[in-house]
Amino acid sequence: MAFDPHVPEIAGVIQLAIAPVFMLTAVGTVIGALNIRLGRAVDRRRELEERLARMSEAELPSAHEELATIARRIRFVYFSIVFAVISALFVALLIAGAFIGAFVRTDLSLTIAAMFVCAMLALIVCLLLFLKEIFLAVSTPRYVPR
Q: How far apart are the first and last CA of the chain?
């Protein structure tokens, strides 16, 4: 097997890799936003758990209800981050596959297309979970101490 890359082929692969790199940047931004939301939910849970011991019996049910909702939000954000990372991994594999195909002179177009579809499906699941978490966050009443 000859390892004989041609500069025009590599230049073409670099040009084709630009769009997936933008997608990788977008997924990284989504992961950053999800990370912030996860941190805020965890902080709220810690604050509420610290207050539980000082709450009256009348306040406990609403606090426990909010804690259950926060747990659901954390789970949605966690799985959203997982799918965002899976999407980013598929994009990274897609870029690597494009370069490997150019160096080895193998037609990996079907594999690269499949990786792009998988990346998009993972991103769609990520965004749907993100939307569900946002819906929970804005539709749940917060416990307000008296």
A: 76
Is the residue at 145 inside a domain?
Answer: no
Contact between 143 and 66 (Cβ < 8 Å) = yes
Q: Has residue 146 been placed in a domain? A: no
**Cβ count near 95 (within 10 Å):** 22
The total number of structural domains in the chain stands at 1
Give the Cα separation of 24 and 119 in Å (integer): 10
- Residue 98 contacts residue 17 (beta carbons within 8 Å): yes
Decide if 41 is inside a domain: yes
Handedness of CA 96, 86, 130, 73 (dihedral sign): negative
| Separation of alpha carbons 10 and 146, rounded Å | 66
| Domain region containing 119 | 7-139
pLDDT tens for the chain, 146 residues long, are 455 556 666 777 777 778 888 999 999 999 999 999 999 999 999 999 999 888 888 888 888 999 999 999 999 999 999 999 999 999 999 999 888 887 787 788 899 889 999 999 999 999 999 999 999 998 877 656 65
